[in-house]
Amino acid sequence: MPRPDATPGRRADLARGIFLCLLSTLSVAAALLIAPVLPRIVAHFAGQPHAQELALLALTAPALVVALSAPLLGRLADRAGRRPLLLAGLLLYGLCGVLPMVLDDLGLILLSRLGVGLAEAAVITASTTLIGDHYQGAEREAWLVRQTGTASLSSILFLLLGGLLGEENWRLPFALYALALPAIPVALLLLREPAAPQAGKPALAAPVEGLPWRQLGPLYGVALFAAILFFMAPIQLPFLLAARGESSPQVVGLMNAAGAFAVPLGGLLFRWLGWSSLRAVLGLAFALAAAGLGLLAGPGGMAVLLAGVLAAGLGCGILLPALLTAIMALLPFAQRGRGTGAWQTAFFAGNFLSPVLVIALTGALGGLASALLAVAGLSALAALLGLVPFWIARPRPGAARGEPS
Fold first, then answer.
1. Domain-located, residue 386
2. What gap in Å lies between CA 76 and CA 85, rounded to an integer?
3. Which residues pair with 195 in a beta bridge?
4. How many distinct structural domains can be found in the chain?
5. Residue 202: strand pairing partners
6. 8 Å CB contact between 117 and 65
């Protein structure tokens, strides 16, 4: 006979999971809300020295701050608790996010964006750690897939909202950052501080031990490369379209939307491949990413470009939840915050490095197409040889699900 509170408990788990997935959209909003209004920001501050450089830094600075601060905030989550870090991050995100509505100096706006990045690191690290705390096995895998898919699909919404609001005034998109503030009472209602599984003690009482770097280090290395691939298509697509004589923002938006839809489809494919070894899943994902980048770099028309965007999105949609699930399975409760923080560092460092790598390769190889082909070759090599040592990725039942041996 089912327990009387089984249904309410399942509803609470569902509400908690949905809320934690929605929090992942804050990292997308941090950049994409203001991307459409960057030219207007530059125009408004045209009289200020280095206006264009400062505006671009305001766009990319949050990702760099996340990469630098996430491990420290993950350690704080293990020592002081996940929920306090999450609540503080939401408050800081809402306050710093809306400041550019009233600031009239690009230097101060850049400082406020650094605060957004710190808040983003706190929220995303704490929320991902909580998914690892509250769910296990296949259920944890499902929520991590949903988290990745939610973040990807939200990119379409934020690009549209940023563009629509920016048509009226470049400051208006910043108002949406205030939505983090009403999320605070929702977090207080839905989230509880998890207890350590064995001792039954809260997270802040858990002993601090070193991370198992021998096992985790290679996975973080693969995650960094996967993040570089993840941002390759959406960042370079406008330039590839322009080279074909197509500069319409609408076409660029539709193409990127197709890629965004392909990411959660890749997550579903990852779940379907749950019987395979982690190495086999990563091999397929890297092969799809390589094929997608190869098509993008080729001489084909719009249909070929669309096929490349879809293939790259599918591959990255498999890579991210596969790697995060495997990492979570290797993290004991007392180390989960730090381990998740290191994951965020790898992912957002990839965000920052992706265009830098393409710029360097474009200069060295003589063109964007050659640069993308070089990255596609590295992805194909990863598919053939594997970037994960065999003692982590050896075939075993449930390996793709990240279940511990």
1. yes
2. 8
3. 202
4. 2
5. 195
6. yes
**Parent domain of 346:** 213-405
| The pLDDT of residue 8 is above 70 | no
Query: Token pair for residue 371?
Result: 């640069």
CATH of the domain at 31: 1.20.1250.20
Q: Rounded to an integer, what distance in angstroms lies between the CA atom of residue 272 and that of residue 276?
A: 9
Q: Is the pLDDT of residue 211 over 80?
A: no
Helix (H) or strand (E) holding 257: helix 249-272
196: left (phi over 0), alpha (psi -120 to 50) or beta: beta
Residue 195 is which amino acid? A
| Average pLDDT for 187-206 | 65
Per-residue confidence (pLDDT) for residue 200, from 0 to 100: 44
SS (H, E, C) 147-162: HHHHHHHHHHHHHHHH
For the chain, the distance separating the N- and C-terminal CA atoms, rounded to the nearest angstrom, is 33
The pTM of the full predicted model, rounded to 2 decimals, is 0.76
**pLDDT interval class at 102 (50, 70, 90):** very high
The structure tokens listed for 141 are 């895998």
Whether the Cβ atoms of residue 320 and residue 343 lie closer than 8 Å to each other = no
What is the distance between the alpha carbons of residues 366 and 184, in angstroms, rounded to a whole number? 50
